[in-house]
Each structure stands twice: as structure tokens, then as C-alpha cells.
Design brief:
mainly alpha
Length: 153
């Protein structure tokens, strides 16, 4: 039960903003120095899967001696990390997503949306159930009489 609630929450919180991210990434792609990327900078010291390594016996001493024991930075330095969090492109995406623009109804409602609101379209025989493109069918649609409550033309 708890797992399904967690999955449901993750589906509801999913934000589909690939068009906006692509536009911002293209705009910042030609700017030098390259301060913003669509992929966030990786910081190993803040990775929860690497925390055991950074707590192992020799590593904290090495980090203190090299003055890297304050949480670390990404590969490109603290300016790129700062710009990725507080830069103009990221602020635009954050404002857009906080306003709800990144939510797609299909993505927010999850997999249950697939058959939720089906709209029946006209079949192969047209809107009234039989073909109307032959003149004889327009004048006398059926030899058995009219079987539709819809208007004939």
C-alpha cells in the first residue's frame, strides 16, 4: 500500500518540461563560458549512493587537507553549480513549473488516463451508420426504412 502511494505521488509530481528545457539549452549552448546545461552538474559529495565512501576512514582527512570538506562542488567549480541553481535559465524553468505549466494531464494522471475519456469517432460508414457518398443511398438509404433518429442530410 505504501509503495503504491509513493508511486502515485511520483506520477502526480512528474513535470514534463522537455520543450522548455530544450529551448533554454539551445539558447545557452552557444554562450561561452558554458555555465548552464540541461543536465545538472554532478557533485559526488552530495550523492547519497557515494556517502559511505566519503565517510570511510582516509577520505575525510584528505578532504580536510585539500579544503574540500564543505560539501564539494561539481567538476566545473562552484560558479557553474551556483549558476545552475540561481541562473536565469533555471529561474525561468522554476517559475514556469511552479505555475503549473510543466504538467501534462496525461502525465499527471498516470497510466490510468489511457482509456479514461474515450471519444467515439465516426466509423467507416460515416456519422449516421451507413454511407452517404452514393446518390442512391442519399435518396433511399435503406430498403427496410429509416433506422436512425438522426436527420438524413
Amino acid at each position: 500500500m505504501a509503495r503504491s502511494c509513493a508511486c502515485l505521488r511520483l506520477e502526480k509530481d512528474f513535470v514534463l518540461d522537455c520543450v522548455a528545457v530544450g529551448t533554454v539549452a539551445r539558447a545557452y549552448g552557444s554562450v561561452r563560458p558554458k555555465l548552464w546545461s540541461a543536465i545538472p552538474p554532478y557533485n559526488a559529495q552530495q550523492d547519497p549512493h557515494a556517502c559511505r565512501y566519503f565517510r570511510s576512514r582516509p577520505v575525510p582527512h584528505v578532504l580536510r587537507s585539500t579544503d574540500q570538506d564543505h560539501g564539494g562542488t561539481g567538476r566545473d567549480g562552484w560558479i557553474v553549480d551556483y549558476f545552475h541553481i540561481f541562473g536565469q535559465g533555471q529561474r525561468y524553468l522554476n517559475r514556469r513549473n511552479w505555475a503549473g505549466a510543466g504538467h501534462s494531464l496525461q502525465q499527471v494522471s498516470g497510466h490510468d488516463y489511457y482509456n479514461a475519456h474515450l471519444k467515439l469517432g465516426p466509423g467507416l460508414n460515416g456519422r449516421f451508420g451507413y454511407r452517404r457518398n452514393i446518390p442512391a443511398l442519399r435518396q433511399r438509404p435503406s430498403v427496410f426504412g429509416e433506422v436512425t433518429p438522426f436527420p438524413l442530410y
